[in-house]
Design goal:
Chain lengths: 489, 418
Amino acid sequence: MATVNQEIDHLLRRAGFGVSTLDVDIYRDMSHARAVDYLVDYEGRPDDVDERMGRPDHALIATRDLFAPDIDIDDARQRWIFRMIHSRRPLQEKMAMFWHNHFATAYSKLAVDSGERQATKMLAHKPGTLRGPQGQIELFRQYALGNFRDLLVQVAQDAAMLIWLDGKSNTKARPQENFGREIIELFTIGVGNYVESDVYAAARVFTGWNLRGSDDYRKDEYGDLNSYQEFVYNADQHDTGDKTFSFPIYSNGSHTIASRSESAGLQDGIDLITALAVHPETGRRLARKFWNFFISEVHAPDPAFIESVSTVYLQAGTQIRPVIRHILNSPWFTNPEMQFARYSWPAEFVIRSIREVGWQNFSVDKARSPMAAMGQQLFEPPNVGGWPPGAAWFSTGTMLARTNFAATLAASQKEFLAASIAPVAQSPQELLDALLVRVTPAPLDSAPRQALMSYLAAAGSWTGGGEQLNTRAAGLARLLVGSAEYQLV
Amino acid sequence: MDLSRRLFIRNGVATVTFGIAAPSFLTAIAEAQGARTRNLVVVYLGGGNDSLNTLISYRDAAYYSRRPSIAVPAGQVLQVGSDAAGQAMGLHPRLGGLLNIFNEGRLALVQRTGYANSSRSHFEATDIWGTANPQSSTGSGWLGRYLDVLPRPLDALAAWNTTAETPRALISGTSGVPAIPNASTYTYASPNRGAAATQERTAAQLMASNPASGRPHLAFVNSTALGAIATLDRVALATSYTPTVAYPNGGFADALQTVAGAIVRGIGSRVFWLQTGGYDTHAGQGGGGGGDYANLMGTLGDGLWAFYSDVRNQGLAGDTTVIVFSEFGRRISENGSAGTDHGAAGVMMVLGGAVRGGLHGTAPSLSPGHPTLENNSGDVRYETDFRSVYARLLEQWLGVSSVPILGGDFRAGAPAIF
């Protein structure tokens, strides 16, 4: 069983990574609103998922030499996939994914800059006890439903971000526009709401927001991994002049950050970030992204939704938790028309299929390369704009990568699948019905249903067991997970 | 940046139909689409190539004074003579393969290509080269618009993208371009063997043939799945090709070998897109003709030499043109980390059996204050508009009118590369 009811299934596809057999007992008797609270107030659920790596009844982790997700990027990817499958706080992982895409930072540039192990550490950290900042993805977990303005401040001072958008070399003699541009264009108010001179002013605001290495830090693949880089405010590199913007910075309507002394200049950046966070266009921009992430990529954003969500965002003082609760309880979310109205991201597709088909003796490492072939290598978004959303996930090559992952997964679960389904597979029709409880594509029209029944009929007279059942159950799972219907969430 | 792409694909839902033509029709389709089966192979150097270390002004003293730790010593460059301005030029020492093609007269080096007010942003600059529009770099790409003017029905493999994501240049108003990042995994896998596996593929094709009326997004994914199944066998034909030369190791050479297979096997593709990355050399790009940048040059030169030799051995060099470009060149002076920052104009390469080789355009003089420079003499000023190179490729190689595709007449001043 991997279905509760249509409403809850929809909620768990959007606010998590689909329904696993273990979820059925948890959610069976919950109302929609209760289930929303259960997901949103996730602090009530233990954060024990890292400890469960390597335990029985969980997906496997591949250990090459040593499993080191804090310094080895492939292991960091394994850890995140494992967490998405098994976390008791699926919405936290889902929002970490959202922020990873919103503040898209790619490992490869960091690795060139600081070496592979330090780059992994800056993005992923956690397991182990290494010193230094917690790592960007841990930041996104911490602020998954936190205050957006505070998250912006943290991101602006995040070591990975300071390298990724070159803030580390932002000095008063040579102001660096990269971060100043993107925090306005991509992270907050968006194109059409600022002018080019705002970018130059923002670059000057963030002069002196640089990076420093710990005393023992040096760029060295074999250096001390306890060494680290962290944010530093270099007062003597700060441009102390006035900075004027096309939009208001202060609640009194002033557009100018007045000149401050070097030592007080850090506040310039805080003031700008605060202004950007409370700008109504930031609320609307986030609302549009949430529409696509939680409601639909098929229906254009409803203006009433945008206004309603941005209003909640501003009234809540830029807190995200009330915003998400509002969205998940809203009539837009619960409208049955919105079910399966999104194109799954590769991470959503892969995790959901593992949770539905099964993970017995299945190593999450087997999902890494396929995800890259599907167009989403974790910690490696194509650029600061994030992954191209929606239909852009789909090309012939990425579609084959998805269907071939379905084949890999079905092959790995062949015997388990057949064993669990044998009691209710007395006829081809029963087999299909039973699998459709477990593997849940968007509703199938009669033509694809017929194609599936023909596939079962080709097995010859039905025995309901043995090699025939092994073959056809796996084949059916592969066809369902590899179908177009299953790519929608 | 991403919005327009999404809109295109949405709009494309109604119109994208993959031509599932039986192989016997393919030649007819290919012939109907042009007088000859000419191929255009586009190689994008991702990250902004440091052109000044690709094609080197090795007698310009400023080259050495402004790049004390990353300049290639004069004694190591592969000399290619002097350009129209009398500058003695040489290729990077790891471009020996390209020197061979140059010496055969089949490599054109178009110096200082670019456009006015060159963007220093990767995203914007890549989109500008993709759309061929520095003013508004959203919407369809120049090669996508070329596909749009080809006669219908358009073969599903008219263009072949070897990267996972469709580049801006290939975004078309009417056609989805197959993405084949790894041809050897461009297959239909099954958890079963034998008859069951075959039956699965049949079932998958039937399922994807469902028109899904009332659900255009489902229809779009179905059409993608169908396009994949429709192109599988022909792609497999290309990957089964045995080349006439040994290609180097690595993803770029693998992709080139697959492209050669597609060309030799007559798959019918006319445009191929390849990418090789790592060119964003802000730090530690290497000195003395060695290091990271030299490795990039080795990958590029060795791969292209193998490819060119292979198609030439097959008698198909005359049907093949390769262009090599990057989104911008890099700063003239090295930075504090023995690397170079984002710059402006760069060198474009065009090679093939029909190409008129040689040094086209003039090198910059790297002494501060020289009019071939811009941005306070920090960057190279463009001389040849990149769109004029596109125009010549479209008109003289692909045989279509460039003006509607490029949204203007850029034929004047185009280098004589054919």
